[in-house]
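Lab meeting, item 3. Inverse folding demo.
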């Protein structure tokens, strides 16, 4: 309910009958107060931290999570 997503859609995604769109993933992550990486089960988290790549990747990850332009938005050439 917090994500404002129908139970039918969520059920289909959970069962693998329908792919989860990036906007659905972002919406559900926000509703659950987790990152999209946590929701998707980002692999190799410990390795990234150990190699200190997490410090470099985190600002990029935050920017991508906050990128919220409608899919039908068009940029003129």
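The presenter then showed the designed sequence:
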């Amino acid at each position: 309910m917090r994500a404002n997503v129908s139970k039918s859609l969520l059920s289909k995604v959970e069962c693998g009958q329908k792919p989860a769109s990036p906007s659905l993933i972002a919406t559900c992550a926000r509703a659950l107060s987790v990152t999209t990486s946590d929701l998707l089960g980002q692999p190799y988290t410990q390795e990234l931290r150990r190699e200190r790549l997490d410090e470099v990747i985190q600002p990029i990850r935050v920017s991508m999570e906050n990128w919220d332009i409608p899919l039908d938005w068009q940029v003129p050439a």
